[in-house]
Design a protein that fits this description.
Helices cover about 35% and strands about 15% of the residues. The chain has an eight-stranded parallel β-sheet with strand order 2-1-3-8-7-4-5-6, with helices on both faces. The chain is built from eleven helices and eight strands. The two termini are about 20 Å apart. α5 crosses α6 and α8 packs across α9. The chain has about 325 residues and is of the alpha/beta class. α7 links the parallel β4 and β5.
């Protein structure tokens, strides 16, 4: 869409006809859809759907991540005019990206929430799309993984996080962001031997067979070497990426519920994400952005970049398969 076209239309979040193309609109005005994509519940023409899951009732410390999806969308509008930098192709023009809006659920009926999430993501996958979810606390990944495992079988997971989230919890009805990955393994949604957790810097004696690359190793080995090791472990297996924003050091992402010092820098994360091109990414999420604890908006900005890089990683694999 050209600048001239933009001057004749108002608010591409509602008026855009084509799900492909850049958006030449004022970044400071209009509805904050992700990357100024069209808000739509109709996904028949979409390749990938961005959706918000504003849930934060499973946190063990500070709440506020229910406000994350809105903040991440707003932060994504800082650069709606150009292709994401450095990929060598324009994902905005080559692929149909839709903003599917937020999951609707009854915040007071917590027990019904997991099934709502699984149904929501299953619907997106059933339309032939992949999903990128904006959280919300990290519990949301468990019911998302259920939907993906129903389609692909036990998933490889690439988890960026300060915590493993594999603390033992055999009560499968409990909703807790610190035990969701334990349950994902026990329920057969995840194959830990073909999965990687990166940025870990909290102690947990039982990591259930996950390959762990802690924050210290990233700092000492460097992000390029770490990305190469991740790709070696994942191979070409269908992989779901979940990025807890607390994988970043609080200096770069203070707006989160359980910050831990010594984390990844934004630059390290950016290099790893770029060097992971070629992994078989089938979906992902960015979680634990809690805007009330970051008056600068830096945390949401980082999350918006991460979600955009996920879209590019997903698109890279599809372009390679198509020989483009």
């Amino acid at each position: 869409m050209s600048l001239e076209d933009a001057e004749n239309e108002i608010d591409h979040a509602f008026t855009r006809e084509d799900l492909k193309g850049k958006s030449f609109e004022n970044a400071f005005a209009g509805a904050p859809s992700f990357l100024r994509r069209r808000y739509t519940k109709e996904l028949a023409r979409a390749d990938i759907a961005v959706t918000g899951i504003p849930f934060d009732q499973a946190v063990t410390n500070r709440p506020g991540t229910r406000l994350g999806p809105r903040a991440i969308r707003e932060a994504s509008l800082l650069q709606p005019f150009d292709a994401p930098y450095g990929w060598g192709f324009d994902v905005l023009s080559e692929f149909a990206i839709a903003d599917h809006g937020d999951l609707a659920f009854d915040y007071a009926d917590t027990s019904s929430f997991p099934d709502k999430v699984t149904e929501h993501i299953t619907s997106i996958l059933g339309d032939g799309c992949a999903s990128i979810a904006l959280g919300g606390d990290h519990f949301i990944t468990l019911p998302i993984l259920k939907a993906y495992a129903q389609k692909y079988g036990p998933m490889s997971v690439l988890q960026f996080d300060a915590h493993t989230d594999t603390w033992a919890d055999d009560n499968m009805e409990r909703i807790d962001h610190g035990t969701f990955m334990y349950k994902a393994v026990k329920l057969g949604y995840v194959d830990p031997a073909r999965s990687v957790q990166v940025g870990i810097r909290t102690d947990n004696p039982d990591v259930l067979g996950f390959n762990i690359i802690d924050a210290r190793e990233v700092h000492l080995s460097g992000p390029q070497a770490v990305a190469a090791r991740i790709k070696e472990i994942l191979g070409d297996h269908p992989t779901y990426m979940t990025f807890d924003i607390d994988a970043l050091d609080p200096a770069f992402a203070p707006g989160t519920g359980t910050p831990v010092w010594g984390g990844l820098t934004s630059a390290q994360a950016a290099i790893m994400l770029r060097d992971l091109a070629g992994m078989n990414l089938v979906g992902g999420d960015v979680v634990e952005v809690s805007p009330p604890y970051d008056t600068t908006g830096a945390t949401a900005i980082a999350a918006a970049h991460i979600a955009t890089e996920m879209i590019c990683l997903w698109a890279w694999t599809r372009r390679q398969a198509a020989g483009t």
